[in-house]
């Protein structure tokens, strides 16, 4: 579970970096990050189920943040493809 949370934190850090970086010209890298976040969401679902969802709310919050990051990346990929 610690690996999943760490992966989520790394992904969120990367997302913050992309927000403040120059205009993205190659959206293929972002799609790879998007795929990794989807993998992290599935791993988080598995970890929460294995722990009977009893993580004092931290697992649910981590999963919600991953889902937010996934949505933002999806929107950024769509934007880059249009422009």
Structure description:
The model has no long low-confidence stretch (mean pLDDT 80). The protein contains 3 helices and no strands. The protein is elongated and about 45 Å long. It has one domain (2-82). The chain is 81% helix and 0% strand. By secondary structure, the chain is mostly helical. It has helices at 2-20, 28-50, 58-82.
Structural shape: elongated
**Could you spell the SSE succession in H and E letters?**
HHH
Helix/strand/pairing category: mainly alpha
Mean pLDDT: 80
Q: Work out the radius of gyration.
A: 14 Å
**Beta fraction of the residues?**
under 5%
N-C termini distance: 38 Å
* Low-confidence parts: none
- The strand count comes to 0
Main sheet makeup: none
Total number of helical segments? 3
| Quaternary structure state of the chains depicted | single chain
In the residues, how many domains can be counted? Answer: 1
Tell me roughly what share of residues is in helical segments.
Answer: over 70%
Give the topology, please.
Layout: H1 2-20, H2 28-50, H3 58-82
